[in-house]
């Protein structure tokens, strides 16, 4: 009796796919360290898309005994017998990879992502957590995508996308990301502001269990422009975007002065906030949790989270990396899977 | 009894319809403040009297007609009334031209007194921009008034919350204009002002972190080149003069590092870049049980001026709910700056 319940629970556990990222970065190390936590291991089953050997180096350096199984990547299935399994790409016979960006590092990390995306689209895994890649390695490998987000959007045929961050109590989406501050004025449109409001609203409902999320929208200018005294983007662009969202039934308001909006969200007045540009959102995110902030890609048909840091080539292989952000990324992915299941059960 | 060596600090009453008078009388019933200075409120005595009754502090107003009469009697708030500073029976929480004018006259008088060295520093309570403008004083705020009265062109806003100190290269301008305003010369000037400001706050060799303008500080020119063209040369200039300056540092990591004590001063390129982390720090501290009041300091003026970080808060004016924490901090900051400025001046001569 007890045993059968145990087995049902086992098969019910979310299956989280983790891509190793650039093998020469800190990806292997933070994956091994994060999954070495028994609480993390108990909460789900894991398929790591990566190199078994590289994980072994990281475990040795951290004095962690191997806790995972290995299968050739083409043999891995959802019902494989392991709690943690490496979908190994040993046909890429490469020597231990350390020391920075490389073509092979780019080729491998792209392949891990592509296979994990296909696995998620095909139902083999419930979510993808990506360890950091090197944009330089991807360029050396001839990739046409500047980063993860573009590859994920293209391969899942997502039409819209937005970058979201989860940091402590703060859930935040960005209207613009990697743009020079001076260029924002040319790129700033009602659509650019509406999209993250809409996608954040959908995500908070589907993946974070909120029925009618309250979304606060930041202004672009000091004091949100103070009625047009310091810039008119609030009137021309942000207010129309908020009106559009409200007309579609989204509970959102603003534009609010950015210096107090994030505080108000932390105090519980908003479930999510939309920041207008990278630093406006990332300053509070990193201040709240310098090590644990998590990046979530919105708008995809699959769940994708990732730690907030990069490959950190300078400390790779030295057992100096902090796994907090990878742990948070895994926990949030599991939480999102569970919320989605509940939402599907109640037919929301 | 009368200790002439305690600095004389002029406190402007602010807009009488706001919480200014209330936070002043609450701050002046604080023993540690009185031990360090001789405060004199510059404003309408009847307004201060009203605030005393509202705040239920056991003090009474003593009007002075010249500043030599300011003593150190406890139980007394010394008030100096400038000519034309009349605003009795104003209604709390309402914009009134009469109140705006009285607040303006107090600032003007305090500035004159500080310029002729009759007082050592001024601490300002909040004013209301609409009331000020309704009275025909077309200024955006304190900083503009003070700059105009003292003929100052190069000034900068330094905000202090606990251990986080941030000085701003630009403040109240549209974001789209910021990139055009951050010249190497302006950044150098702000670094210098911030360095001197830190010394006056008692940090002799401040470690200064300068923020980038763009995401990831431009990532080597990938998202904007202001870091390479404007910010880096200013930092190099300062380092060549042996200032301990680092950057440009991506803004999202700079403030997290400063919050953990790695920098004494941050240089922000624009208003929200500096204000977002400052306001968050205030909250972080208050979560741990102490409420941290922020202080706003105008650098570059010929006089010492500090201010509370909050506004007139018309919504809670007249209710006795306002916290004096920021006012206490602002007075203490002013005292520290007076001490260190005289120490540096003495050392320099």
Instruction: Tally the beta strands of chain A.
Output: 12
Question: What is the CATH C-level name of the largest domain in chain B?
Answer: Alpha Beta
Overall 3D form of chain A: globular
Number of helices of chain A: 13
| Largest interface in this structure | A-B, 38 and 41 residues
Biggest sheet details of chain B = 12 strands, mixed
As residue ranges, the low-confidence spans of chain A are: 1-8
- Name the beta content range of chain A: 15-25%
Number of helices of chain B: 12
Question: What would you give as the CATH superfamily of the largest domain in chain B?
Answer: Isopropylmalate Dehydrogenase
Notes on the protein architecture:
The complex is a heterodimer of chains A (348) and B (349). Chain A is built from 13 helices and twelve strands. Chain A is an alpha/beta fold. Chain A folds into two domains: 1-158 and 300-348, Isopropylmalate Dehydrogenase; 161-290, Isopropylmalate Dehydrogenase, CATH 3.40.718.10. A twelve-stranded mixed β-sheet of chain A has the order 3-4-2-1-5-12-11-6-7-10-8-9, with helices on both faces. In chain A, helix 2 (27-35) crosses helix 4 (52-61), helix 5 packs across helix 7 and helix 9 crosses helix 13 (324-345). The longest helix of chain A is centred in the C-terminal third of the chain and has 22 residues, at 324-345. With 349 residues, chain B is an alpha/beta fold. Chain B has helices spanning 20-27, 31-36, 45-55, 97-115, 129-134, 142-150, 175-181, 184-200, 226-240, 251-259, 271-287, 325-348, and strands spanning 8-12, 38-42, 60-64, 76-80, 121-124, 156-161, 164-168, 208-211, 245-249, 265-268, 295-299, 304-308. Chain B has two domains: 8-152, Isopropylmalate Dehydrogenase, CATH 3.40.718.10; 156-277, Isopropylmalate Dehydrogenase. The two termini of chain B are 31 Å apart.
């Amino acid at each position: 009796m007890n045993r059968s319940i145990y087995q049902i629970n086992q098969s019910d556990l979310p299956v989280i796919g983790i891509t190793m990222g650039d093998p020469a970065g800190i990806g292997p190390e933070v994956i091994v360290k994060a999954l070495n936590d028994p609480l993390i291991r108990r909460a789900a089953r894991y398929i790591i898309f990566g190199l078994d050997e590289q994980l072994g180096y990281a475990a040795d350096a951290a004095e962690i005994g191997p806790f995972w199984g290995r299968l050739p990547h083409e043999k891995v299935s959802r019902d494989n017998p392991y709690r943690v399994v490496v979908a190994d790409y040993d046909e890429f016979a490469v020597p231990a990879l350390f020391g920075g960006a490389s073509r092979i590092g780019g080729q491998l990390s792209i392949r891990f992502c592509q296979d994990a995306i296909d696995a998620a689209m095909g139902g083999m895994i419930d979510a993808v957590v990506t360890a950091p890649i090197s944009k330089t390695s991807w360029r050396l490998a001839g990739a046409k995508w500047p980063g993860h987000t573009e590859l994920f959007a293209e391969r899942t045929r997502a039409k819209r996308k937005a970058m979201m961050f989860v940091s402590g109590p703060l859930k935040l989406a960005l209207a613009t990301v990697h743009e020079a501050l001076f260029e924002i004025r040319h790129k700033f449109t009602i659509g650019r502001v509406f999209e993250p409001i809409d996608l954040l609203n959908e995500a908070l409902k589907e993946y974070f269990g909120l029925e009618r999320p309250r979304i606060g929208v930041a202004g672009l200018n000091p004091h949100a422009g103070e009625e047009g005294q310091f810039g008119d983007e609030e009137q021309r662009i942000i207010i129309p975007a908020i009106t559009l969202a409200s007309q579609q039934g989204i509970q959102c308001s603003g534009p609010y002065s950015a210096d107090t909006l994030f505080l108000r969200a932390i105090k519980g007045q908003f479930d999510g906030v939309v920041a207008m540009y990278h630093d406006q959102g990332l300053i509070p995110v990193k201040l709240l949790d310098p090590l644990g902030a998590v990046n979530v890609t919105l708008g995809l048909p699959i769940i994708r989270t990732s730690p907030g840091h990069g490959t950190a080539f300078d400390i790779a292989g030295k057992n100096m990396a902090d796994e907090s952000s990878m742990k948070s990324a895994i926990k949030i992915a599991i939480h999102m899977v569970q919320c989605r299941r509940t939402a599907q059960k109640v037919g929301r | 009894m009368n200790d002439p060596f305690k600095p004389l600090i002029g406190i402007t009453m602010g807009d009488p319809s706001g919480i200014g008078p209330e936070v002043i009388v609450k701050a002046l019933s604080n023993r540690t403040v009185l031990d360090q200075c001789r405060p004199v409120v510059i404003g309408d005595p009847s307004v201060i009297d009203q605030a005393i009754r509202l705040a239920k502090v056991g003090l009474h107003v003593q009007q002075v007609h010249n500043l030599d009469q300011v003593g150190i009697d406890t139980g007394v708030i010394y008030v100096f009334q400038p000519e034309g500073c009349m605003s009795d029976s104003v209604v709390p929480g309402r914009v009134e031209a009469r109140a705006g004018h009285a607040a303006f006259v107090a600032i003007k008088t305090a500035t004159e007194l500080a310029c002729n060295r009759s007082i050592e520093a001024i601490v300002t309570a909040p004013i209301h921009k609409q009331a000020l403008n309704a009275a025909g004083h077309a200024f955006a705020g304190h900083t503009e008034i003070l700059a105009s009265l003292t003929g100052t062109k190069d000034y900068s806003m330094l905000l202090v919350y606990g251990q986080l100190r941030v000085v701003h290269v630009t403040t109240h301008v549209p974001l789209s204009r910021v990139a055009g305003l951050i010249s190497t010369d302006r950044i150098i000037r702000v670094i210098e002002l911030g360095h001197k400001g830190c010394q006056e706050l008692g940090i002799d060799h401040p470690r200064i972190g300068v923020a980038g303008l763009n995401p990831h500080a431009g990532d080597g020119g990938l998202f904007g080149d202001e870091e390479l063209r404007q910010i880096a040369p200013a930092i190099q200039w300062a380092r060549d003069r042996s200032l301990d300056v680092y950057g440009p540092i991506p803004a999202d990591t700079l403030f997290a590092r400063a919050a953990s004590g790695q920098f004494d001063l941050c240089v922000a390129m624009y208003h929200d870049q500096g204000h977002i982390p400052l306001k968050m720090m205030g909250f972080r501290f208050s979560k741990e049980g102490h409420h941290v009041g922020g202080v706003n300091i105008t650098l570059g003026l010929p006089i010492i001026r500090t201010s509370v970080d909050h506004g007139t808060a018309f919504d809670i004016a007249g209710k006795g709910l306002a916290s004096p924490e920021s006012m206490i901090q602002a007075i203490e900051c002013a005292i520290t700056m007076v001490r260190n400025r005289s120490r540096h001046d003495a050392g320099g001569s």
